[in-house]
Amino acid sequence: MAQFGKASSKRGKPTYAYAIIGVSLVLFLFGIVGWFFLNLRKTGDYVKENIQVHAWLNPNAPKKGIDSLKSYVAALPYAKDVEHVTKEMAIAKWNADNDTTWKKFLDENPLPESIDFYVKADHVQKDSLDILSADLLNRYPGLVKEFQFPTETLSQVSKFVKTAAYIFLIAAIVLTILVVFSIDNTIRLAMYSNRFLIKTMQMVGATRWFIAKPLNVRAIINGLIASGVAIAAVWATITLIEGLAPGFKVLHDNTSMILLFLIIVLLGISITLVSTHRSVIKYLRMKLDDLY
After folding, report:
1. Res. 286: pLDDT tops 70
2. Could you give the CA distance from residue 230 to residue 34 in angstroms, rounded to a whole number?
3. Beta bridge partners of 178
4. How far apart are CA 227 and CA 175, in angstroms?
5. Does the pLDDT of residue 80 top 80, yes or no?
6. Which letter does DSSP use for residue 113 in this model?
7. What is the model's pTM?
8. Which domains does the chain have, with CATH numbers?
9. Is the pLDDT of residue 1 over 60?
10. How confident is the model at residue 9 (pLDDT cuts 50, 70, 90)?
């Protein structure tokens, strides 16, 4: 009987190795999709926070009023990179990005002064910017001539991010279900090779806890190994992508990555442990003849 147990154990070892590889592949796929989902949000925030807002000033705006307006905007918790753009700075920017044929037709600089700034992603919404526009126009009526932001661009970005978020959310839910079932089936196949060993231990008087404990511990270890392999593969893939497309480095967020890796570890351990324990209980409840 001891030889029978050893034989079953030996047959189970390669199956465990295959199970670890299978679980690692599934967790790797989950990690890549999760990374794309996180990057989708970061991409939307990055684009939003690079949309510049302009508060155009009246031609005769006093410097004291301009300084007051700039200080007020800079004090807003969602405003950043506030800059007073003079007429000279405005025309210099124009000349750098466009041709200078206007000099043939105009004697004076036609561009107005402005207070330019960027807004944090959470506040880059039409309603929020409309409220800010009304506030600045009412607070500085003789100073601010017009408040401008690219409405169409803002609308398109918001629509794209919202639509893509729903698509990735549905994909993430479907993938999570597939991950759970795939890992569960993989572990059940691994435990199938140990069914006689489990039953033999029960027949010689071992308690359910005594039988399940070492298998549960092995499940936790296998889950950790599979999670570690998946995390290493995800990290290597991300590093490769960032090397080939440097623009992704701007979106790199260590906090989000750590959270994603923790989810992979918890998912790998929990599903592996639950599936293993269920399989053990299943074979303990079965009759010996049903194992063949």
Report:
1. no
2. 13
3. none
4. 16
5. yes
6. P
7. 0.63
8. 2-46+156-291 (no CATH), 52-149 (3.30.70)
9. no
10. very low
End-to-end CA distance of the chain: 17
Tokens found for residue 114? 């402005």
Closest alpha carbon to 195 in 222, 175, 167, 215: 215
CA 162 to chain CA centroid, nearest Å:
14
pLDDT of residue 149: 84
pLDDT digits (tens, 9 = 90+) for 145-196: 888 888 787 778 778 877 877 887 788 788 778 777 777 777 777 666 666 6
Name which of 65-79, 240-254, 276-290 the model is least confident about: 276-290
**Rounded Cα distance, 66 and 34, in Å:** 46
φ, ψ (nearest 5 deg) of residue 145? -85, -40
Q: How far, CA to CA in Å, does 266 sit from each of 47, 178, 211, 220?
A: 32, 16, 24, 10
Asked if residue 210 has pLDDT above 50, the reply is yes
The three-class DSSP label of residue 144 is strand
- Collapsing DSSP states into helix, strand and coil, what is residue 274? helix
The average pLDDT across 16-44 equals 82
Contact call for residues 165 and 40 (beta carbons, < 8 A): yes
Q: Which two tokens stand for residue 182?
A: 């795939």
Across 3-14, b (16+ Cβ under 10 Å) vs e yields eebeebeeebee
In whole angstroms, give the CA distance from residue 152 to residue 126: 10
Residues 55, 97: contact at Cβ < 8 Å? Answer: no
Q: Which helix (H) or strand (E) holds 231?
A: helix 208-244
Sign of CA dihedral 177, 182, 183, 185: positive
Rg, the chain, Cα only: 31
- DSSP three-state, residue 14: helix
